[in-house]
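Thread: Newbie trying to understand structure tokens

Hi all, I'm a second-year student working on a class project, and my supervisor (Dr. K.) asked me to get a predicted structure for one chain before our next meeting. I've only ever worked with sequences, so writing a 3D structure as a token string is new to me. If someone could post the tokens and maybe explain what I'm looking at, I'd be very grateful. Here's the chain:
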Amino acid sequence: MDSKNKVIFIDDHRQLAQIYDEIEHRVSSAQAEKPIWPCRKGCDLCCRRLAHVPEVTAVEWQKMQLGIQQLPLDIQTEVAHKIKSLKGHQEGFVTCPLLDEEAGACRIYEHRPAACRMYGFYVSRRNNQWCQEIEDLFQAGELDGVTFGNYAAMKRTLGEQFGDVYPITIWFEKSTQDQA
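---
Reply by user tm_fold:
Sure, no problem. This is what the structure looks like when written as tokens:
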């Protein structure tokens, strides 16, 4: 886990912002082409049924931490508890620990990682990165003509730029150890 100890430089944050801008461009183009697209603030289907604990690079975790630190202290404590409770999770769906379940919105939306930004708009060869609602629209032909992003290529780019990805439970544990 060499990348866990990687020093994050300002240039890394600039590069990450460029990648996020690229993702946002594809997402906004798809939404403009198909206004019926359900992926937007208030839709939390994917956040409630993650296949595994969210995984991010070191620089993405740093960005997420900034978002968490801007939350009220009681919410930070709640998020920390939820992240800790996912340690060692093996089977079944996971609800994102950063989801405000009552509001159906991400608590750190502006600081969310690439995987969250791509979900619903990027595909991979093995399985598509979308919920049943997108699958239904796709099967009905409602999304014909949309150019989906390549999830595997973007994930590879993130890995090449910023190192390995690890579950947020590992990053959280590491960050709390560093603070001790």
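A couple of things are worth pointing out once you decode it. DSSP finds eight helices and six strands in the chain. The CA atoms of residues 5 and 15 lie 19 Å apart. Feel free to ask follow-ups in this thread.
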